[in-house]
């Protein structure tokens, strides 16, 4: 009885996200998605990015999803994912100006279910990295939980936080500019097809590799 009380007390102190992940692991840890919940002990990460119809993860809709694997100091873009979805009803002119995906460009796009299946197959249980990656994960989870019953269980690496930490070491007297393009410029990384899911995922992956270096020349 005492041990039960301690267990319940510990769970009550967990953050909501941690409790939800624990519950998802209990429910799906023996099913077809069990491998997603297994601890990851490798050195690969996956850079992800989503293009959406807005910046509010509670109301925006997915337009495209991209992911690329980072392995052995290289970006394996040829093994990546770049999927466009069927045009959502909320696709409007103001967001089209940003990601440049018109309804005609999305004709024949994938269903959300097929896109998520492809994403999970590529990502597996590897950590995810990206710029403002919490937004991308929140967008994916908004579709993933109703369809499959769980959120992405992967560990998350926020690129801007990693950059800020590294800059304190490289340039302790400079306040780092955490904007995507500014970070890429400071890290000497070319910006690839900005505001496309694939371009931003590849650029994020290249920035992540730069941040693994102990010294960055001509910073």
Description:
By secondary structure, the chain is of the alpha/beta class. It has 8 helices and 5 strands. The protein has a 5-stranded mixed sheet with strand order 3-2-1-4-5, with helices on both faces. It is globular.
Sequence-ordered SSE layout with sheet pairings:
Blueprint: H1 2-13, H2 16-28, E1 45-52, E2 62-71, E3 74-84, H3 93-99, H4 112-123, E4 128-130, H5 133-148, E5 156-158, H6 159-170, H7 180-186, H8 197-210
Parallel strand pairs: 1-4, 4-5
Antiparallel strand pairs: 1-2, 2-3
List keywords for this structure.
single chain; 219 residues; alpha/beta; 5 strands
Query: How many DSSP E strands?
Result: 5
Low-confidence stretches: 5-14
* Biggest pleated sheet: 5 strands, mixed
* Spatial separation of the terminal alpha carbons: 59 Å
Helix content, binned percent: 40-55%
Roughly what fraction of the amino acids lie in strands? 15-25%
Question: What is the arithmetic mean of pLDDT?
Answer: 83
Radius of gyration: 19 Å
Helix-strand pattern: HHEEEHHEHEHHH
Q: Class by helix and strand content?
A: alpha/beta
Write down the overall geometry. globular
Going across the biggest sheet, name each strand in turn: 3-2-1-4-5
Number of helices: 8
What is this entry, summarized?
The chain has helices spanning 2-13, 16-28, 93-99, 112-123, 133-148, 159-170, 180-186, 197-210, and strands at 45-52, 62-71, 74-84, 128-130, 156-158. The chain is an alpha/beta fold and 219 residues long.
């Amino acid at each position: 009885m005492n041990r039960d009380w301690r267990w319940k007390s510990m769970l009550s102190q967990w953050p909501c996200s941690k409790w939800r992940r624990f519950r998802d692991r209990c429910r799906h840890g023996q099913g077809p998605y069990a491998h997603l919940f297994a601890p990851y002990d490798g050195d690969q990460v996956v850079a992800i990015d989503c293009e959406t119809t807005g910046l509010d993860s509670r109301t925006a809709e997915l337009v495209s999803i991209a992911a690329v694997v980072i392995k052995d100091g290289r970006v394996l873009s040829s093994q990546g994912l770049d999927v466009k979805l069927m045009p959502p009803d909320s696709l409007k002119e103001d967001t089209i100006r940003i990601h440049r995906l018109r309804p005609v460009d999305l004709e024949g796009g994938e269903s959300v279910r097929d896109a998520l299946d492809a994403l999970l197959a590529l990502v597996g249980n590897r950590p995810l990295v990206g710029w403002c990656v919490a937004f991308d994960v929140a967008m994916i989870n908004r579709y993933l939980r109703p369809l499959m019953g769980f959120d992405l269980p992967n560990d998350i690496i926020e690129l801007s936080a990693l950059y800020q930490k590294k800059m304190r070491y490289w340039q302790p007297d400079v306040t780092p500019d955490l904007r995507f393009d500014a970070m890429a410029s400071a890290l000497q990384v070319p910006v690839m097809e900005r505001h496309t899911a694939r371009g931003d995922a590849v650029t994020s992956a290249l920035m992540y590799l730069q941040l693994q270096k102990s010294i960055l020349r001509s910073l």
